[in-house]
Amino acid sequence: MLFEPSSIMSLDEAEQVLYTYGTLKTQWDDDTLSWNPSNYSGITSFLWPQDDVWLPDLVISNSVTDARRLGFKEMPVRIESSGAVSWFPSMILATSCDMDITYYPFDTQKCNIILSTTMSTYEEISILPRGNPISWAEYSPGGSWELKAIVATELDNQGDITRIQFEMTLKRLRTYYVMNIILPVIFLSLTASLVFYLPADAGEKIGMSMTVLLAYAVYLTIIADNMPQTSLQV
Questions:
Q1: What average pLDDT is seen over the chain?
Q2: Helix, strand, coil tally for the chain in percent (to 5)
């Protein structure tokens, strides 16, 4: 099995959900589908809809949406004369991601995509990553997160069900937050200190202080709306 990410669509901090678009390239051998090409005009492979071919019962076990079969009804599967079957379902993955916001917005997150069987046991289906289980050929960087690394590991069997985990390390691109949150807050802090330079009889000290306080409240609301509601890391 090989995972080929195409893009990190978004990471919803408030809901702690990662949206990824990618392809799971899966291959296996099915002896019942092998044939001798010389008996069939030299045909060595063909495409067939996935609904008419046996497929492993794979699901994304940490998906936040309904667990459903990968791929779609008309998606083609390539079958070789040797019995080798290639199945490359592409999809948008919505998976849960426990976020650590201690260093927000200068944070790095680790999010997982866990692939497992639904009913088949480890003896029946064994999910094995290839020698190099990650392909970066189709990856396009986004504007919010930088994908630093992906590590594929086999997890311990859970009730004899085989599982594989793709751990993604994401680094937040901070330019937006520096320009739109940090620098304005620093400017407000400097503005607040100017109230002490106003003459006592100017009559604008309270008005200026209230204006700065309201601006702080607005920025606090913006930041709070984008933060996950968790008390595990603050």
A1: 86
A2: 25, 35, 40
